[in-house]
Write a structure and sequence with these properties.
Shape: globular
Distance between the termini: 23 Å
Strand order of the largest sheet: 4-3-2-1-5
Radius of gyration: 14 Å
Number of strands: 5
Helix content: 10-25%
Structural class: alpha+beta
Strand content: 15-25%
Largest sheet: 5 strands, mixed
Order of helices and strands: EHEEEEH
Number of helices: 2
Length: 115
């Protein structure tokens, strides 16, 4: 789990995004499309077209962080709104990263074996 400090907001960038982008490209999207400050200490979450990949950017005040996660099975639950950002809590982000529906937490599928 990402250690989210108190007072940090988590923003879901609605729609789907190119998962080939790195921190610099995603921070420009935050600044230009979402009209938010990518270096303000908040987390910005982006989902790929297929829905099984996430990227999170975060500037902690000392440097830029880029986190990525891919689900082996299933998809990340994502809002249907487009063209903006939706704020969620750090706890909801934790559910999302575990593959649980953050709107109504229930475990989805968990792999039994590796490989």
């Amino acid at each position: 789990m990402i250690p989210v400090p108190t007072g940090v907001r988590v923003w879901l960038a609605t729609g789907h995004w190119d998962m080939r982008k790195g921190y610099a490209s995603l921070s420009v999207l935050v600044q230009e499309m979402l009209k938010l400050d990518p270096h303000g200490g908040h987390l910005f979450v982006f989902r790929g077209r297929r829905g099984d990949r996430l990227k999170i950017i975060w500037h902690d005040g000392y440097g830029a962080c880029l986190f990525s996660k891919r689900l082996e099975r299933g998809r990340f639950i994502w809002p249907t709104a487009t063209g903006g950002a939706i704020a969620i809590s750090a706890a909801q982000l934790g559910y999302m990263l575990e593959g649980i529906d953050w709107r109504a937490p229930q475990h989805t599928w968990r792999p039994q074996i590796a490989g």
